[in-house]
Amino acid sequence: MPMRVHAIEKVVENTPIHKTFYFNDRECRNAEPGQFIMVWIPGVDEMPMSLSVIGKQQAVTVEAKGEGTKKMHEMKEGDKIGIRGPYGKGFSLSGEKKLFVAGGTGIAPLMPLIKMSGGKKTVILGARSSHLLLFEEELKSMDVELHISTDDGSEGHKGFVTDLLEEMADADKKFDVAYACGPEIMMRKVLDFCLENSIPMEASLERYMKCGIGICGSCAIDGYHVCRDGPVFESSILSKIEDFGRWKRDESGKKVEI
């Protein structure tokens, strides 16, 4: 799929370290929630980014943490970016009672799914601190049951989002399906919870990607390619991937502990 060059139409500062960049790309209008695009930043490189807004306008929500993302945070409306995609396997809609578990920037690819979903929706949103909570006000304006967790206790539960899972289990809350995105150690705990409670789960994985189409092998994990077979994987597959929540590959392809 060739690269398309677009002007950034709008930039929203969500938190001190997160910005959302809006654009209009015909190929992305009907993307599946959970799919990703390769974004070319002039003078830097391409990077995989999940779509946080899908529709007439599309957007990616970016945390400034590396050379490429920090460079993107300097960009303004009218600046040009390149786009390839959308690529990969997205989330599937199923069930009446849905649980969404998000840590940090992990809420970004879940937002389109939450908006498209019907039925009863419970969202657990976590961040290191209250000022880093993404899309909190938007979620509060939606028809969802929202639970908040912060590492430092500045808002909501003090601790991890997975602590709230145990509270829900104790309260005998039942879910037909669970969706998760965030730090992989967090998602591993969500998987364990779902397996123990017989809840089908889908999770979006993040891996270093160069090509985005399954050729370079940089995103390989236990025989799967995150860019082509994922980034969304079902619990039946995740439970068999030994590296999930434990190992990933760096830019050189070397396995490093998560």
SSE order and pairing:
Elements: E1 4-7, E2 10-15, E3 18-23, E4 36-41, E5 45-53, E6 58-63, H1 67-73, E7 80-87, E8 97-103, H2 107-116, E9 120-127, H3 136-140, E10 145-150, E11 157-158, H4 161-170, E12 177-181, H5 184-196, E13 201-204, E14 220-221, E15 224-225, H6 226-229, E16 232-234, H7 235-238, E17 247-249, E18 255-257
Parallel strand pairs: 8-9, 8-12, 9-10, 10-11, 12-13
Antiparallel strand pairs: 1-7, 2-3, 3-6, 4-5, 4-7, 5-6, 13-16, 14-15, 17-18
Helix pairs in contact: 4-5
List descriptors:
single chain, 258 residues, alpha/beta, Elongation Factor Tu (Ef-tu), domain 3, Rossmann fold, 2 domains, seven-stranded antiparallel sheet, seven-stranded mixed sheet, 35% strand, globular
Task: Describe the overall structure.
The chain has 258 residues and is an alpha/beta fold. It has two domains: 4-87, Elongation Factor Tu (Ef-tu), domain 3 (Beta Barrel); 97-257, 3-Layer(aba) Sandwich (Rossmann fold), CATH 3.40.50. The chain is 21% helix and 35% strand. It is built from seven helices and 18 strands. The protein has a seven-stranded antiparallel beta sheet. A seven-stranded mixed beta sheet has the order 11-10-9-8-12-13-16, with helices on both faces. β4 and β5 (45-53) form a beta hairpin. It is globular. The mean pLDDT is 91.
CATH architecture of the largest domain: 3-Layer(aba) Sandwich
**Helical proportion, percent range:** 10-25%
CATH top level of the largest domain?
Alpha Beta
Determine the number of helices (DSSP H or I, runs of at least 4 residues).
7
Distance between the termini: 32 Å
How large a portion of the residues is in β-strands, by DSSP E?
A: 25-35%
Number of domains: 2
Mean pLDDT: 91
CATH fold group of the largest domain: Rossmann fold
Widest sheet: strand ordering: 1-7-4-5-6-3-2
Q: Characterize the largest beta sheet: strand count, sense, and whether it forms a barrel.
A: 7 strands, antiparallel
Query: Count the strands?
Result: 18
Structural class category:
alpha/beta
Q: What is the CATH superfamily label of the largest domain?
A: Nucleotide-binding domain of ferredoxin-NADP reductase (FNR) module
Broad shape: globular
Give the topology string: H per helix, E per strand: EEEEEEHEEHEHEEHEHEEEHEHEE
